[in-house]
User: Fold this.
Amino acid sequence: MATHLSAAETRPRHKRVLPGLSLSLGTSLLFISLILLLPMSGLVMQSVDMGWDRYWQVISDERVVASYKVTLWAALIASIFNGFFGLLLAWVLVRYEFPGRRILDALVDLPFALPTAVAGITLATLYAQNGWYGEILESLGLKVAYTPWGIVLAMAFTSIPFVVRTVQPVLEELSPEEEEAGMTLGASDWSVFRRVIFPALWPALMTGIALSFTRSLGEFGAVIFIAGNMPYVSEITSLMIFVSLQEFDFPAASAIASVVLMASLILLFAINIWQARYLRRLHGRS
Assistant:
Protein backbone atom coordinates (compact mmCIF):
# COMPACT_ATOMS: atom_id res chain seq x y z
CA MET A 1 0.00 0.00 0.00
CA ALA A 2 1.38 3.39 -0.97
CA THR A 3 1.78 5.85 1.82
CA HIS A 4 1.67 9.59 1.38
CA LEU A 5 4.24 11.54 3.32
CA SER A 6 3.84 15.19 4.18
CA ALA A 7 6.27 17.83 2.98
CA ALA A 8 7.71 18.11 6.47
CA GLU A 9 8.39 14.38 6.56
CA THR A 10 10.01 14.29 3.13
CA ARG A 11 12.16 17.37 3.74
CA PRO A 12 15.78 16.34 4.41
CA ARG A 13 16.93 16.86 7.93
CA HIS A 14 20.04 18.97 8.42
CA LYS A 15 22.41 17.30 10.83
CA ARG A 16 24.06 19.62 13.28
CA VAL A 17 27.75 19.00 12.99
CA LEU A 18 28.67 21.46 15.73
CA PRO A 19 27.17 21.45 19.24
CA GLY A 20 24.02 23.36 20.08
CA LEU A 21 23.75 27.09 20.65
CA SER A 22 24.46 27.05 24.38
CA LEU A 23 27.72 25.11 24.17
CA SER A 24 28.95 26.86 21.00
CA LEU A 25 28.10 30.33 22.30
CA GLY A 26 29.60 29.60 25.71
CA THR A 27 32.85 28.34 24.20
CA SER A 28 33.05 31.35 21.88
CA LEU A 29 32.48 33.81 24.73
CA LEU A 30 35.08 32.04 26.86
CA PHE A 31 37.61 32.28 24.04
CA ILE A 32 36.86 35.99 23.47
CA SER A 33 37.11 36.70 27.19
CA LEU A 34 40.45 34.93 27.68
CA ILE A 35 42.18 35.92 24.45
CA LEU A 36 40.72 39.39 23.72
CA LEU A 37 38.84 40.99 26.59
CA LEU A 38 41.11 39.96 29.46
CA PRO A 39 44.33 41.46 28.02
CA MET A 40 42.51 44.63 26.94
CA SER A 41 40.85 45.03 30.33
CA GLY A 42 44.23 44.57 32.02
CA LEU A 43 45.65 47.29 29.80
CA VAL A 44 42.81 49.64 30.62
CA MET A 45 42.96 48.95 34.36
CA GLN A 46 46.70 49.58 34.49
CA SER A 47 46.16 52.90 32.71
CA VAL A 48 43.34 53.85 35.09
CA ASP A 49 45.52 53.20 38.14
CA MET A 50 47.90 55.93 36.96
CA GLY A 51 45.47 58.73 37.61
CA TRP A 52 44.25 61.19 35.03
CA ASP A 53 47.06 63.76 35.51
CA ARG A 54 49.84 61.21 35.07
CA TYR A 55 47.98 59.53 32.18
CA TRP A 56 47.57 62.82 30.31
CA GLN A 57 51.19 63.77 30.98
CA VAL A 58 52.38 60.51 29.36
CA ILE A 59 50.16 60.50 26.28
CA SER A 60 50.61 64.22 25.61
CA ASP A 61 54.38 64.23 25.91
CA GLU A 62 55.94 66.12 23.01
CA ARG A 63 57.97 63.15 21.80
CA VAL A 64 54.99 60.80 22.06
CA VAL A 65 52.75 63.22 20.17
CA ALA A 66 55.38 63.41 17.43
CA SER A 67 55.28 59.60 17.21
CA TYR A 68 51.48 59.76 16.81
CA LYS A 69 51.89 62.06 13.83
CA VAL A 70 54.57 59.92 12.18
CA THR A 71 52.54 56.76 12.71
CA LEU A 72 49.29 58.26 11.44
CA TRP A 73 50.58 59.78 8.22
CA ALA A 74 52.73 56.73 7.43
CA ALA A 75 49.79 54.38 8.03
CA LEU A 76 47.53 56.60 5.92
CA ILE A 77 49.91 56.66 2.95
CA ALA A 78 50.53 52.91 3.22
CA SER A 79 46.78 52.20 3.36
CA ILE A 80 46.03 54.36 0.31
CA PHE A 81 48.86 52.60 -1.55
CA ASN A 82 47.45 49.22 -0.53
CA GLY A 83 43.94 50.27 -1.54
CA PHE A 84 45.02 50.94 -5.12
CA PHE A 85 47.48 48.11 -5.66
CA GLY A 86 45.49 45.65 -3.53
CA LEU A 87 42.43 46.21 -5.71
CA LEU A 88 44.55 45.81 -8.84
CA LEU A 89 46.15 42.61 -7.54
CA ALA A 90 42.79 41.12 -6.52
CA TRP A 91 41.40 41.98 -9.96
CA VAL A 92 44.30 40.21 -11.71
CA LEU A 93 43.97 37.12 -9.52
CA VAL A 94 40.21 36.82 -10.08
CA ARG A 95 39.71 37.94 -13.68
CA TYR A 96 42.74 36.49 -15.47
CA GLU A 97 44.28 33.07 -15.97
CA PHE A 98 48.05 32.98 -16.44
CA PRO A 99 51.01 30.76 -15.58
CA GLY A 100 52.03 31.14 -11.95
CA ARG A 101 48.65 32.51 -10.85
CA ARG A 102 48.41 30.10 -7.90
CA ILE A 103 51.93 30.97 -6.81
CA LEU A 104 51.13 34.69 -6.92
CA ASP A 105 47.92 34.05 -4.97
CA ALA A 106 49.90 32.20 -2.29
CA LEU A 107 52.54 34.94 -2.12
CA VAL A 108 49.84 37.45 -1.12
CA ASP A 109 49.68 35.73 2.28
CA LEU A 110 53.45 35.81 2.75
CA PRO A 111 53.35 38.86 5.08
CA PHE A 112 51.00 36.88 7.35
CA ALA A 113 53.35 33.88 7.51
CA LEU A 114 56.65 35.75 7.60
CA PRO A 115 57.83 37.01 11.02
CA THR A 116 57.69 40.79 10.99
CA ALA A 117 61.26 41.07 12.25
CA VAL A 118 62.47 39.00 9.30
CA ALA A 119 60.47 41.23 6.96
CA GLY A 120 62.02 44.35 8.50
CA ILE A 121 65.57 43.04 8.23
CA THR A 122 64.98 41.95 4.62
CA LEU A 123 63.50 45.30 3.61
CA ALA A 124 66.29 47.20 5.34
CA THR A 125 68.89 45.09 3.52
CA LEU A 126 67.26 45.50 0.13
CA TYR A 127 66.63 49.24 0.41
CA ALA A 128 69.85 50.26 2.14
CA GLN A 129 72.29 52.41 0.18
CA ASN A 130 74.28 49.32 -0.85
CA GLY A 131 71.21 47.08 -1.26
CA TRP A 132 69.78 45.77 -4.53
CA TYR A 133 66.98 48.32 -4.69
CA GLY A 134 68.53 50.99 -2.51
CA GLU A 135 71.54 51.37 -4.77
CA ILE A 136 69.28 52.05 -7.77
CA LEU A 137 67.11 54.47 -5.82
CA GLU A 138 70.19 56.22 -4.44
CA SER A 139 71.37 56.92 -7.99
CA LEU A 140 68.01 58.59 -8.62
CA GLY A 141 68.32 60.72 -5.51
CA LEU A 142 65.81 58.69 -3.49
CA LYS A 143 66.46 57.23 -0.07
CA VAL A 144 64.06 54.79 1.58
CA ALA A 145 65.88 52.87 4.29
CA TYR A 146 66.25 54.69 7.63
CA THR A 147 63.83 57.42 6.58
CA PRO A 148 60.08 57.91 7.17
CA TRP A 149 59.50 56.38 3.73
CA GLY A 150 60.92 53.15 5.09
CA ILE A 151 58.09 53.16 7.62
CA VAL A 152 55.54 53.48 4.82
CA LEU A 153 57.19 50.64 2.91
CA ALA A 154 57.20 48.30 5.91
CA MET A 155 53.58 49.12 6.78
CA ALA A 156 52.45 48.57 3.19
CA PHE A 157 54.25 45.22 3.05
CA THR A 158 52.73 43.85 6.24
CA SER A 159 49.15 45.04 5.62
CA ILE A 160 48.45 44.64 1.89
CA PRO A 161 46.92 41.12 2.32
CA PHE A 162 44.02 42.71 4.22
CA VAL A 163 42.93 44.61 1.12
CA VAL A 164 43.46 41.75 -1.33
CA ARG A 165 41.71 39.12 0.78
CA THR A 166 38.80 41.45 1.56
CA VAL A 167 38.16 42.48 -2.06
CA GLN A 168 38.89 39.13 -3.72
CA PRO A 169 35.78 37.21 -2.52
CA VAL A 170 33.49 40.08 -3.57
CA LEU A 171 35.03 40.11 -7.04
CA GLU A 172 34.55 36.36 -7.34
CA GLU A 173 30.84 36.65 -6.47
CA LEU A 174 30.04 39.49 -8.88
CA SER A 175 27.66 38.38 -11.58
CA PRO A 176 28.98 39.00 -15.12
CA GLU A 177 25.45 39.55 -16.48
CA GLU A 178 25.31 43.16 -15.29
CA GLU A 179 28.68 43.94 -16.88
CA GLU A 180 27.58 42.32 -20.14
CA ALA A 181 24.32 44.27 -20.08
CA GLY A 182 26.20 47.55 -19.67
CA MET A 183 28.53 46.73 -22.55
CA THR A 184 25.55 45.70 -24.70
CA LEU A 185 24.06 49.14 -24.11
CA GLY A 186 27.24 50.72 -25.43
CA ALA A 187 28.92 51.67 -22.16
CA SER A 188 32.71 51.83 -22.15
CA ASP A 189 34.84 49.58 -19.94
CA TRP A 190 35.54 52.48 -17.58
CA SER A 191 31.82 53.31 -17.29
CA VAL A 192 30.97 49.70 -16.51
CA PHE A 193 33.66 49.57 -13.86
CA ARG A 194 32.69 52.92 -12.32
CA ARG A 195 28.89 52.44 -12.34
CA VAL A 196 28.47 48.66 -12.00
CA ILE A 197 31.53 47.03 -10.49
CA PHE A 198 32.98 49.69 -8.18
CA PRO A 199 29.78 50.37 -6.16
CA ALA A 200 29.68 46.68 -5.27
CA LEU A 201 33.39 46.64 -4.39
CA TRP A 202 33.41 49.92 -2.46
CA PRO A 203 32.37 48.56 0.98
CA ALA A 204 34.87 45.70 0.81
CA LEU A 205 37.61 48.02 -0.43
CA MET A 206 37.01 50.52 2.37
CA THR A 207 36.97 47.71 4.92
CA GLY A 208 40.27 46.38 3.58
CA ILE A 209 41.83 49.86 3.68
CA ALA A 210 40.58 50.38 7.25
CA LEU A 211 41.99 47.01 8.33
CA SER A 212 45.27 47.87 6.63
CA PHE A 213 45.36 51.22 8.42
CA THR A 214 44.55 49.64 11.79
CA ARG A 215 47.19 46.96 11.30
CA SER A 216 49.76 49.60 10.42
CA LEU A 217 49.06 51.61 13.58
CA GLY A 218 50.40 48.81 15.74
CA GLU A 219 53.20 47.56 13.48
CA PHE A 220 56.56 47.24 15.20
CA GLY A 221 58.81 44.39 14.05
CA ALA A 222 58.93 45.23 10.36
CA VAL A 223 59.25 48.99 10.94
CA ILE A 224 61.86 49.07 13.67
CA PHE A 225 64.69 47.82 11.44
CA ILE A 226 64.11 50.18 8.51
CA ALA A 227 62.75 53.34 10.14
CA GLY A 228 65.92 54.91 11.49
CA ASN A 229 64.13 55.63 14.79
CA MET A 230 65.13 59.29 14.97
CA PRO A 231 63.16 61.25 17.62
CA TYR A 232 60.51 63.55 16.12
CA VAL A 233 61.34 62.25 12.63
CA SER A 234 60.95 58.48 12.29
CA GLU A 235 59.86 57.24 15.69
CA ILE A 236 56.56 55.35 15.67
CA THR A 237 54.19 54.90 18.58
CA SER A 238 54.99 51.20 18.94
CA LEU A 239 58.62 52.14 19.51
CA MET A 240 57.62 54.54 22.29
CA ILE A 241 55.73 51.70 23.95
CA PHE A 242 58.81 49.49 23.63
CA VAL A 243 61.06 52.19 25.09
CA SER A 244 58.76 52.52 28.12
CA LEU A 245 58.84 48.76 28.61
CA GLN A 246 62.64 48.77 28.41
CA GLU A 247 62.64 51.38 31.17
CA PHE A 248 60.24 49.19 33.20
CA ASP A 249 57.68 51.98 33.11
CA PHE A 250 54.75 49.64 32.52
CA PRO A 251 52.01 52.19 33.33
CA ALA A 252 53.42 54.59 30.72
CA ALA A 253 53.60 51.80 28.16
CA SER A 254 49.99 50.87 28.94
CA ALA A 255 48.89 54.50 28.61
CA ILE A 256 50.45 54.92 25.17
CA ALA A 257 49.13 51.52 24.08
CA SER A 258 45.63 52.48 25.20
CA VAL A 259 45.67 55.41 22.75
CA VAL A 260 46.46 53.05 19.87
CA LEU A 261 43.81 50.62 21.13
CA MET A 262 41.11 53.29 21.31
CA ALA A 263 41.98 54.61 17.85
CA SER A 264 41.81 51.10 16.37
CA LEU A 265 38.51 50.25 18.05
CA ILE A 266 36.87 53.52 17.02
CA LEU A 267 37.99 53.03 13.43
CA LEU A 268 36.77 49.43 13.29
CA PHE A 269 33.38 50.29 14.79
CA ALA A 270 32.99 53.27 12.46
CA ILE A 271 33.81 51.27 9.32
CA ASN A 272 31.43 48.47 10.33
CA ILE A 273 28.58 50.92 10.91
CA TRP A 274 29.29 52.69 7.63
CA GLN A 275 29.48 49.42 5.73
CA ALA A 276 26.14 48.22 7.12
CA ARG A 277 24.41 51.50 6.24
CA TYR A 278 25.97 51.63 2.77
CA LEU A 279 24.89 48.08 1.93
CA ARG A 280 21.38 48.76 3.27
CA ARG A 281 21.11 51.88 1.14
CA LEU A 282 22.52 50.06 -1.90
CA HIS A 283 20.03 47.20 -1.57
CA GLY A 284 17.23 49.69 -1.05
CA ARG A 285 18.01 51.33 -4.37
CA SER A 286 18.10 48.01 -6.17
Q: What stands out?
A: The CA atoms of residues 125 and 131 lie 6 Å apart. Residues 1-9 have pLDDT under 50 and may be disordered. The first helix runs from residue 7 to 10.
